[in-house]
Input
Amino acid sequence: MRHNKKRVIKICEELTAFLLRMGATEIESKLQREAGHYRLTYRADYTPACRGELEELKEYFNRSGRFGAVEEYWELAGSSDMGDGSELLLIGMMTEQADIQLTDAQVELKLMI
Amino acid sequence: MKRFEHPLSIKPSEMIHRVLLAYGCLLLITGLIVTPPNQLLPQLSAILVSSGVLLSDYFVLGGIGPALVNAGIVTLLALLLSRTQGLSYSGMSIAAIMIMGGFALFGKNPLNTAPILLGNYLFSRYQREPWSRYLYIGLFSTCLAPFVSYLWTALPFSPVINLAIGGLAGIFIGFAIPTVAPHTASFHLGYNLYNVGFAAGFIAIAIMSVLRGFRLDSQSVMFWRKGIDIWLALWLAAGCLALFLLGFILAEQKLSTLWRITRHSGRAIADFVFMDGVGPTFMNMAVMGLLCLGYLLLIGGDLNGPTLGAILTTIGFAAFGMHPRNCAPIAAGVWASTFLLRYQPADPSIQLAALFGFGLAPIAGQFGPIWGFVAGMLHCAIVTTVGSVYGGLNLYNNGFTAGLVALMLVPFIESLKREDESNAA
Output
């Protein structure tokens, strides 16, 4: 995959924008570089009104298959301050594995890229 | 005996493959039925050797039947390529395959697209990655196929050398566009759905400038079939109705799912198959097809290779960003601009501007119908002049124009927004 580091940076930007839009007041992030992939962990609080959108996030991630859209559009990740659905779908396509844990007060995202 | 498979028991990716296969077969079989057998090969040959420069209506150059046969062959080859590369089908697959069939009614054919796809393949080999990662960009890149045809016919050398130079140019195009397309997406921030058309436009300008340096120039042509054949309109409407019915069954007879699609802005990448499911997506595609046909009937337009191609392209992109709510303001803007500008709604380039202007649908979806209307008006003004820059050799002329409009308009709209105080921190 070309521009690996740049892609990971853009994913971080996009997820930060998304969590801020979800009303987060505190975001913790951790990026680990491992053999052949990156592991990204995000923890944040959110406003209850946004729970529906966070649940929808599970729909966007964890899609197995080759969809062929990533190479044309990967630069769109993190390109706006909206953190909206279309860019999250793009991240879902760029992610090998995703685990999303949602509690009443906090969301935890674990991605393998 | 194999039992009847209920549509709901078929996986979405497989269902999309079958629908695209049916689409390709329908084009091919219809073309074969309406063409007298003794005329098929000569008329198909006329299409294959034409330059494909905008606007080369294959309904004029080869006849309706051979044009549909050409579209069917191109569609089925594209589908075969995506299948053999193991791609899973989604909204983008529908857009990529349907646009191939659409533009094979006015510019693409199996011969002039092959070198570009070879270049795309070589790019993936050079990157040591599977071709599947780049194949859809490759399919969209065939919008510059007229360059290949043009060099085959315009160069002053022997046919073999002309073939070699045209082929090499195609390989270069196929190799170059995957490097440019991701960057152009970030220019317009996903507000132009025809992103590769935008990328290809820049490459086309560069190549055309070089060719003009060698005193080689291309001029746009105007082969345009007037009028609407009733049988063709009914054929298209029947296809849309069948697609709607299939979508309705797949959506478990819930029409409300169709309305839910319109909540998306359509900004790339809005893959409706992922976001709302295959049933609502098929219904949306069918509705968009019928609305496009209705628009042409309303303005007294024509149903020929380019406009049918535009409708098929819109149906495809109705799985990847377009829906009635974000497209209507664009069409209204293009139509209204004809009262101010020197054009008529039924002028060939304006008919195409209205249908292909839907590439700007995300602007209406994100910023509201008024900005969509403005985008449509701007698109109409620019598209009529920009094609001459590359001598009509970029088939996605409207895609390039839409990119320019989005590039100018989106930063302007965003600069007018006031920061929401609750999110100001």
User: Anything to note?
Assistant: Chain A has one domain: 4-112.
